[in-house]
């Protein structure tokens, strides 16, 4: 999978870092992302100040796109903050997938009950009959 880098011109060291870290983060997912894009903006132009924004957008199949943004003094700090936020967002996807796999599906349960190998039935407690 390739990572597109758009926006203001950044140095090659940061470009390779962006591609490597975003690729490693996306490799943890079970599904292969359709596209990944990193966009850098300079909000203030040549005035300076806290004005570099990094936006990371990941399109996953069968799910809405994940987009995170971070504002910082330098492109590297903006990217690091956006990457941390992206990792948290993708962790939620992994947790959701893990939880959905843990519950048995209704057809699996019905098949097991039909075979007689389902979960043992709970025993009834003997009722204490009142002496006559």
What is this structure, in a nutshell?
By secondary structure, the protein is an alpha+beta fold. Helix content is 41%, strand content 21%.
Relevant terms:
3 helices; 4 strands; single chain; 21% strand; four-stranded mixed β-sheet; 132 residues; alpha+beta
Task: Give the helices and strands, then pairings.
Blueprint: E1 3-7, H1 12-27, E2 35-42, E3 52-59, E4 66-72, H2 75-102, H3 106-115
Parallel strand pairs: 1-2
Antiparallel strand pairs: 2-3, 3-4
Helix pairs in contact: 1-2
Q: What would your notes on this structure say?
A:
The protein is α+β, with helices and mostly antiparallel strands and 132 residues long. It has helices at residues 12-27, 75-102, 106-115; strands spanning 3-7, 35-42, 52-59, 66-72. The N and C termini lie far apart (80 Å).
